[in-house]
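Project channel, design review

CF: Before we commit to the Streptomyces thermocoprophilus constructs, I'd like one complete example in the thread so the newer folks can see what an input/output pair looks like. Taking beta-glucosidase.
RD: sounds good, go ahead.
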Amino acid sequence: MPRTALLVSTALLAALLPVSAARAAPAADAPASVLVDRFEGEVPFASQPAEGLFTWGGDADDPPTLRLAERPDAPEGQKVLAGDYDISGYGGFTHDYAADGPAHDWSAYRGIRFWWEGRGTGRTVTFEIKDGGAHGEASELWTTSFADDFTGWKQIELPFTDFVYRTDYQPVGGIDQVLGLTGMWGYAVTLPTGAKGSFAMDAVELYGTADQSLRASVTADAAVHPVAEGATASVRLTVATTGSRPLDEPVTITYRTGGGSASPADYAPAEGTFTFPAGTASGTSRVVQVRTRKDRAAETAETIPLNLTVTGARPPAETPQIVIDAHGLPYLDPKLPVQRRVADLLSRMSPEEKAGQMTQAERGAVAATPGDIATYALGSLLSGGGSTPTPNTPEGWAKMIDGFQLRAQATRLQIPLIYGVDAVHGHNNLVGATVMPHNIGLGAARDPKLAERTAAVTAAEVRATGVPWDFAPCLCVTRDERWGRSYESFGEDPALVASMETVIQGFQGRADGRDLDRHDKVLATAKHFVGDGGTAYGSSTTGTYTIDQGVTEVTRQELEAVHLAPYAEAVDRGVGSVMPSYSSLDIAGDGKGPVKMHARGDMINGVLKGRMGFDGFVISDWNGIDQIPGDLASDVRTSINAGLDMIMVPYGYKDFRAALVAEVRAGRISEKRVDDAVSRILTQKFRLGLFERPYADTRGASAIGSAAHRAVARQAVAESQVLLKNAGGLLPLKRSQKVYVAGSNADDIGNQSGGWTVTWQGSSGDITPGTTILQAMRRAGGNVTYSKDASAPTTGHDVGVVVVGETPYAEGVGDVGNGHDLELSAEDKAAVDKVCAAMKCAVLIVSGRPQLIGDRLGEIDALVASWLPGTEGDGVADVLYGKRPFTGRLPVTWPRSEAQLPINVGDRSYDPQFPYGWGLTTLTKVPSGGEHTLKTLAVAGRVAERLGADEAGRTLVTEARLIVQQKAGQRITAAVSAPFADADHLLLTGDYGKAVDRLIAAYRAA
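CF: and here is what came back for beta-glucosidase:
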């Protein structure tokens, strides 16, 4: 959430000093306060790079209105800053210093204060300051808050020691996470949400003296220090100061062990005092050692707090703990079978510890209170889309996750966390990772072995950053391209989706789970069970969504054939976890009506775990149980009894865990159900090797974004390109041709990567390293002129390439009708019209779903569906310039109009622009002989089918398809489309002879 926060130019501050000097100092040795803002008009309403006050918000309605109001009761001067707000997402205002001016030094002051007119609402107001960096928009955010629990004017004092580093958002990913106070850029106020309100504020100023006890601090190298029984623990204590100045006065530390679960017999008590004298350099350390004692008894982990008393500086935020590791217990023995280890560990767990294992929290929820990991014995953490460490580097990820795992070592049983991310097309949250084509592109490539390689690359990059669990693949069967998640699907045909489930082996390795402990494999997640791709348009009740999280209305036969089939394949492939869908399922004739999937025990317990034999664990979606009707206790009871094993409660982990324990104690959830859930979770943790190696194995980190990994992505991009039209053989291009390139998506790495890239929704622009399509064309040796809006002269060029399509979105935010449609933008249409009127042209559509292009198809010579290729635009250039042939085929039907939707292979009425499976080729000779050749291929297809010669069968059908496409050209009628699409489905089911029979029917109709 891009909130900014900040303050006053040097000249202005100097101008205010005379006024400040007139304000009485609170004590003889304290400096006079310095006004930052009087709100008398000296600071204008403006935005960067000029100094000024400006507003911001999550959407158009969220920014507050501001005014300088005349007030006879103004605490300072004649005016105050006043405003009104009605915020649904987030919103507030900022005072920024000029971006081209110097930062200010606040390190001599105790804090910042201002007058606030209270309304007595009791609501929280957040106050932020910006520290360090190049300017206000490239600095660190530090935050604190106060409660509006009073009426009338009150001076709010915020000591700098109250400010904490923001963990949920940093404008540039953070710098050093140290509040230096020597390079300050301003302040911001975040106003309350959820109800209309007004405010008034006056006289922002710096106050007080920053004595050393505020400027100096003592930190421990870690809050938790695990140590093997009998070994010696070393705790490093460091003194540091704001601005890295030497100590002005001595800092004394007294330490003493005691008070934990370890008894004096387990260690040699340690106590003492030492002093950092005045003049000590900031960053100086001393080490305290604690020796533990060895005995012969098997034990769980025991803690030894190192209690500290600090004078002259702030003490550590937490008391450092030494943890004597658990030892000698059967569950710790890697030589024992996993099943026995699970049983032993489960037998030692309390109800609270079991509930903790079933709880998953968001990293941002525990970042400020990481001790909660041990306090609540949490089993799992995740990064939501865009929830990343600072800095967002492989090292940053590994350090963050190791820090969280270290906290889990402070628990009695030392059960490691399992950390999960949505790496849905590469390690897409990580800047610099290899970003693969989205699933829709892999479905177009029709290459299961290559799909497995893309998943293997993703797994290697994810595991190298310390993450052992991926919320992928999505096995949805997309049936309506108005759905904002369409691109997460491999296609509209369940047979196509099943064929691409080789990705599960790419993620996990062999189906029996024996490869999960490798440093380049992760646990996969089949999602979203079941029917999320079949929701009816207009059935969603989530916010402004139109189709996502809606209702899937099916007969039981349709459910089995279309939506459940891919999950049976996933279970056979040994997928380790499954995530239910937000959507509801309404099965005709079952008498239940629409029921949220998180509550459908008949599907989760009955079908998935029962009939299919799934032995992994089921993880809810983000706050998924909240959508079940009822209160928290009811939601917990319903979901767990329906078969969910772990619940993703990003910020409500305390309440969930307490509710789960209460439901078990009340007998509304059986202990047997809980034991089953925890056993499933622990099984995967043991298989992943987390008990032996909980910390990041970074051996593969050097390969993240490597040439070898990008080469796999490049091949996937090339194979995903679908050539829909190629009049006169315009493609491939020749390097000798002068090419005019235009369009919004020609040179935008963010647009070609789509949603779920660096952030949840993705964004346009240069968001991660990669090669745009324009850059790739130039690297391929093309003679290229580029004009994004086609405003440059078009004369003198041989051919035009116009790259158009969508901008990024994810989930229901991208639903058609929720601010989106399937039309090209006005700018893209204008670029297509201008270029294609001036020369022969190829149009590339970079999008997550088909775009309606029929009204312009006649003026376009070549049309390519490029999907969302990711970071490797070279793959697009490879087919454009003939380094590789076009071989991709449509994974979804391309409609003529939005009125046709939904339209899918097998429909009774089927008359699309381009049918499912359509895809022209280049660099390949089309077989001659027409229908005679097709009949011969049909006979050969049946032979291949009988012999199980799948590769030969696929080749035969491909040859037949090329013959039909050549005859049909652009005269694609309903009589051609229906049998043509049927043939592609039959090809995927191994019915090669029938597939060619259907192609013969299409040939005759062409």
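RD: helpful, thanks. The radius of gyration is 32 Å.
CF: The first strand starts at residue 34 and ends at 37.
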